[in-house]
């Protein structure tokens, strides 16, 4: 009886070790297929490379530095989208109707399979693009256009840079102020949300 118990115990230990090994392999494979994470939400390599190719005339051949720079821009985009969701902008009726209209248009477009990855990526790109636009309008564009006092203050702080009256270069000042607002916003988002880049996967994706 004791011998039988020992045998069963050993079998269970072997099975446990095997299960742990399989779990580790599967987990590592999943991690390897993600190029980055934001607050534990993954950015898959497939999604990232689809977006990269779409913005580079379908070409995936690139060096590491070019890909890393694009990933930084893509992460900034994702951070803004995450912020928009936390503000509840994705719950807006207008937003949901706009996305539904686009989804119906995709379904009617015969060149796009409405059940494939291409469809999913396109729909998600549109959904997140609208969210990014809406929150940017609130946090940057409208704020910079409407807050004359803030614009005047920014001009006074950087007066030596312009060396002209505000009335003559207000458009340039507003553009610079918008850029400053965006920089501050992104810095705050990167402090608020944890960003991790999978360098090994990024290097695998680089073709040159």
Low-confidence stretches: 14-32
CA radius of gyration: 24 Å
Distance between the termini: 64 Å
What characterizes the major β-sheet? 3 strands, antiparallel
User: From the helix content, strand content and strand pairing, which structural class follows?
Assistant: mainly alpha
Q: What is the average per-residue confidence, as pLDDT, rounded to a whole number?
A: 84
Strand order of the largest sheet: 2-1-3
Number of strands: 3
Order of SSEs, N→C?
Answer: HEEHHHHHHHEH
Structure description:
The chain has helices at residues 2-32, 45-55, 64-86, 93-108, 117-146, 148-157, 159-162, 166-192, 199-205, and strands at 34-38, 41-44, 195-197. The chain is mostly helical and 208 residues long. The protein has a domain at 33-138 and 189-205. Helix 6 packs across helix 8. The longest helix has 31 residues, at 2-32.
Brief summary:
This protein is mainly alpha-helical and 208 residues long.
Task: Show the helix and strand layout.
Layout: H1 2-32, E1 34-38, E2 41-44, H2 45-55, H3 64-86, H4 93-108, H5 117-146, H6 148-157, H7 159-162, H8 166-192, E3 195-197, H9 199-205
Antiparallel strand pairs: 1-2, 1-3
Features:
three-stranded antiparallel sheet; mainly alpha; 208 residues; globular
């Amino acid at each position: 009886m004791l011998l039988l118990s020992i045998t069963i115990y050993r079998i269970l230990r072997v099975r446990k070790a095997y299960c742990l090994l399989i779990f580790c392999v599967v987990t590592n494979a999943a991690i390897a297929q993600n190029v980055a994470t934001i607050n534990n939400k993954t950015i898959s390599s497939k999604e990232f490379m689809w977006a990269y190719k779409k913005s580079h005339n379908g070409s995936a051949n690139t060096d590491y530095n070019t890909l890393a720079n694009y990933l930084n821009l893509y992460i900034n985009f994702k951070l803004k989208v995450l912020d928009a969701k936390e503000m509840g902008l994705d719950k807006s009726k207008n937003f949901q109707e706009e996305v539904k209209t686009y989804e119906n248009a995709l379904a009617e477009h015969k060149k796009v399979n409405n059940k494939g990855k291409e469809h999913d990526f396109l729909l998600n790109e549109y959904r997140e693009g609208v969210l990014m636009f809406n929150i940017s309008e609130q946090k940057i564009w409208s704020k910079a256009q409407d807050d004359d006092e803030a614009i005047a203050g920014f001009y006074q702080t950087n007066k030596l840079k312009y060396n002209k009256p505000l009335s003559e270069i207000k458009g340039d000042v507003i553009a610079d102020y918008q850029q400053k607002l965006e920089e501050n916003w992104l810095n705050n988002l990167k402090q608020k949300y944890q960003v991790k880049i999978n360098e090994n996967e990024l290097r695998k994706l680089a073709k040159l």
